[in-house]
């Protein structure tokens, strides 16, 4: 059976999201992730806020200030972060818009439409961009606490 590129991208994204519990387990048992009962959170109930770095974020599971976690992050269309690093590595999955995540000075953006993912190694400088004209939303998950360390 042959699949379209869109179906392949969505299958890969679903596989990445399905690995989130394994990532958290590798970081240690997390009470928010391993609750006593199942949990369902419709997108309409996500609570977006501005974090101290100015990002528009909604927490998924875990505690981004202290350890394993996931976040939804929004970026306005046509915007880019400054050059920065994170202490811990993370995976990002594009939910909406077209994202690029490149090293500083990259000559070409690698377009990541909805359903695509990337892996960002901790400590490596990079720039995250919303290269679509519409808002970008991506889902990130990490074994460690979230930080945003601007390049000096």
UniProtKB/TrEMBL annotation:
It comes from Paraburkholderia steynii. Keywords: Signal. This is Cupin. InterPro entries: DUF4437, RmlC-like_jellyroll, RmlC_Cupin_sf. Residues 1-24 form the signal peptide. It comes from the Bacteria.
């Amino acid at each position: 059976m042959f699949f379209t590129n869109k179906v392949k991208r969505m299958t890969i994204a679903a596989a990445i999201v399905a690995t989130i519990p394994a990532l958290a387990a590798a970081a240690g048992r997390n009470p928010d992730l391993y609750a006593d009962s199942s949990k369902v959170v419709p997108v309409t109930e996500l609570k977006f806020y501005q974090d101290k770095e100015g990002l528009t974020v909604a927490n998924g599971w875990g505690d981004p200030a202290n350890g394993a976690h996931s976040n939804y992050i929004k970026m306005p269309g046509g915007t880019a972060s400054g050059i920065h690093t994170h202490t811990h590595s993370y995976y990002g999955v594009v939910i909406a818009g077209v994202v690029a995540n490149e090293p500083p000075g990259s000559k070409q953006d690698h377009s990541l439409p909805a359903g695509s993912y990337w892996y960002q190694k901790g400590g490596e400088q990079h720039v995250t961009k919303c290269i679509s004209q519409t808002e970008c939303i991506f889902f990130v998950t990490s074994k460690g606490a979230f930080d945003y360390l601007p390049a000096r």
